[in-house]
C-alpha cells in the first residue's frame, strides 16, 4: 500500500463515487417510470448503469477526489461534515467543468476522439439526467474519502490498539 493510502483513496473515489452517482441517476430515472427506458428498471438496470458509470465516470471521480484531497489538506479540515459539503461542491463543479468542455466540442460540430468521449461524455449525460444529482453523490463520496484519508493519515502515536 502507498504511504498515505493514495491507492485506496483514489480507488474508493472511483468505485464509490461512480456507485453513488449511478445510484442517484438510477433512482431519479426509476421514479419516472414512463420517461425512463425499460432497461433501467430493477437490479439489472442498476448493474448495467453502474458498469457504464465506471467507464464514463473514471475521470470525473479521480479529478474530484484529487481536488477534494488537496483542498481539505490546504484548509486543514478534518470533520466529516466539512468533507461532505466540500465533496458535494467539488464534484458538482467538476461535472460542470467537464460538461462545458464537452459542449464546446459539440457546438463546434467536430467529432470527439474516443479519449475525449470517455473523459467528457459522462458528465454531459449526468447533466441531462439532472444537474443536482452530483450534489448528494459528491457528499456521499466525500464521507467515504474522509474516512479513508483519516485512516491513513493519523498523527504518529495515535494508532488504534487491537
Notes on the protein architecture:
The chain has 162 residues and is mostly helical. It has one domain. The protein is 75% helix and 0% strand. It has helices at 6-30, 42-56, 58-75, 80-108, 114-129, 134-152. α1 runs antiparallel to α6 and α4 (80-108) crosses α6 (134-152). The protein is globular and about 50 Å long. The model has no long low-confidence stretch (mean pLDDT 87).
Features:
single chain, 162 residues, mainly alpha
What order do the helices and strands come in, and which of them pair?
Layout: H1 6-30, H2 42-56, H3 58-75, H4 80-108, H5 114-129, H6 134-152
Helix pairs in contact: 1-2, 1-3, 1-6, 3-4, 4-5, 4-6
Amino acid at each position: 500500500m502507498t504511504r498515505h493510502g493514495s491507492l485506496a483513496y483514489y480507488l474508493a473515489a472511483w468505485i464509490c463515487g461512480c456507485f453513488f452517482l449511478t445510484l442517484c441517476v438510477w433512482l431519479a430515472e426509476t421514479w419516472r417510470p414512463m420517461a425512463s427506458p425499460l432497461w433501467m428498471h430493477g437490479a439489472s438496470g442498476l448493474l448495467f448503469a453502474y458498469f457504464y458509470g465506471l467507464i464514463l465516470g473514471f475521470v470525473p471521480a479521480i479529478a474530484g477526489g484529487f481536488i477534494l484531497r488537496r483542498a481539505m489538506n490546504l484548509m486543514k479540515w478534518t470533520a466529516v461534515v466539512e468533507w461532505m459539503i466540500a465533496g458535494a461542491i467539488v464534484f458538482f463543479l467538476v461535472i460542470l467543468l467537464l460538461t462545458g468542455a464537452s459542449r464546446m466540442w459539440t457546438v463546434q460540430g467536430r467529432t470527439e476522439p474516443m479519449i475525449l468521449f470517455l473523459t467528457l461524455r459522462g458528465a454531459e449525460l449526468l447533466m441531462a439526467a439532472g444537474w443536482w444529482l452530483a450534489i448528494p453523490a459528491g457528499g456521499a463520496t466525500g464521507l467515504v474519502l474522509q474516512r479513508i484519508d483519516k485512516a491513513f493519515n493519523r498523527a504518529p502515536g495515535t494508532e488504534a490498539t487491537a
